[in-house]
Amino acid sequence: HRQDPPDQGYDLVVVANRLAVDRVTHDDGTASWRRSPGGLVTALAPIMARMDGAWVGWNGAPDEELEPFDHDQMHLVPVALSADEVQDYYEGFSNATLWPLYHDVIAPPEFHRQWWDAYRRVNVRFAEAAAATAAEGATVWVQDYQLQLVPALLRTLRPDLRIGFFNHIPFPPLEIFAQLPWRREVVEGLMGADLLGFQRTSDAANFHRVAKRYGGYAFRSGQVEVEQDQTSRTVRAEAFPISIDTTPLRQLAADPQVQERARQIRQDLGNPQTILLGVDRLDYTKGIRHRIKAFGELLDDGRLTVDRACLVQVASPSRERVDSYRQLREDIELAVGRLNGTYDTMGHTAIRYLHHAYPIEEMVALYLAADVMLVTALRDGMNLVAKEYVAVRGAGAAHSGVLVLSEFAGAADQLKQALLVNPHDIDGLKDTIMQAVEMDTKEATRRMRTMSRQIATHDVNRWSKEFLERLGTGTA
Ligand code: G6P
């Protein structure tokens, strides 16, 4: 059934699983909100301030009913999830069904009808919250795999809206998507949008095939006419590769305190000639095991030694109540412990493993310290860490540093001067790591300069602007 626009609606409504703010608890016990870090929020905040924007999302804790509030020139509309819904919709269907299914079934996806019921129920709740927030004729931009049913649900409630959807993770090939018992419902959910955005052209092509097979939608040149209620509308599905906000990274890279911190890090590691760096959420899609295996074998073979090279692996805690993530942590920590037990000396370590999240200042210092950045994802929608490294290394006069980048990360479509690898090919990965370690500065500089220009001209502001313009929404 239809819903009337609210009396006081917003012209641009972003709908995402997570709200754009995090709660911070102060020493005196009081709490306040702080804008979340991360490119999406940074990119959309200024547009939201200009356009009278609202953000609909979950605040990350179970069983909390919060009233809408304003923060930082943004209107925030919290959606509540019960503890059971966190289990079934978030940890279950989103992160133990869709996440592994969409990432090439690296881990086996689990299909449970109870999880699907919760997913549908929670998607209805998000759609209703968006319908109650958007002004007449407003634009609603739905984000990511947790909310694939929202576009069609919202169109039924509010046919007056412009609806966009962006999938931040890969969209799988038909043969893999076919496993999903609710494949038709997901296709119909997405087809409620006017514009569907994907990271890679191959993701958009996968969706075109899936939409044909499971919904009969024949996309041509990325678009199809859909008949509904005796009217016809156009649905587009195209690639819009996401990027990062380079300005704060470049500023920090030029900050003498951050540069000093980078020198300190190298010294604390015992001044190895080469610092290799991995930065990931602790996720089985990131290929952390493959990276550690390759590095370990290079030590076994004597092609690297611990006084020459050290691998710093930042693995930020993620989805810790989902089984496959628990198992991954066990595996990684066993592998790191074994390797360090074998090769560490009093003054040097093979792998400095850090199971923490760090503030952006510390991350930039790490990027500045790292001679070689290892991004070995087995499948990744984009991988913004690769782009952050390039933005930081390309900021100074030196333009040095080597990026080893998996061809299975979306970023490989833009960062063609990286050393591209197939992380499943351990011998190839080992040789590529050695090529990176031994690359002369001139060649490293040439590659980094080209990539840094790519990122500078294709930042996240351009991404959001292009998406919203294509959707038919002016953002000026
Ligand atoms: C990926 C997804 C996002 C998600 C993020 C963190 O980047 O595309 O939608 O928010 O991971 O995961 P989390 O489960 O903590 O939100």
TrEMBL record:
Cross-referenced Pfam families: Glyco_transf_20 (PF00982)
InterPro entries named in the record: Glyco_trans_20
CDD domains from the UniProt entry: GT20_TPS
Highest rank taxon of the organism: Bacteria
Molecular function in Gene Ontology: alpha,alpha-trehalose-phosphate synthase (UDP-forming) activity
One BP annotation, GO: trehalose biosynthetic process
UniProt similarity note: Belongs to the glycosyltransferase 20 family.
Protein name: Trehalose 6-phosphate synthase
Record organism: Micrococcus terreus
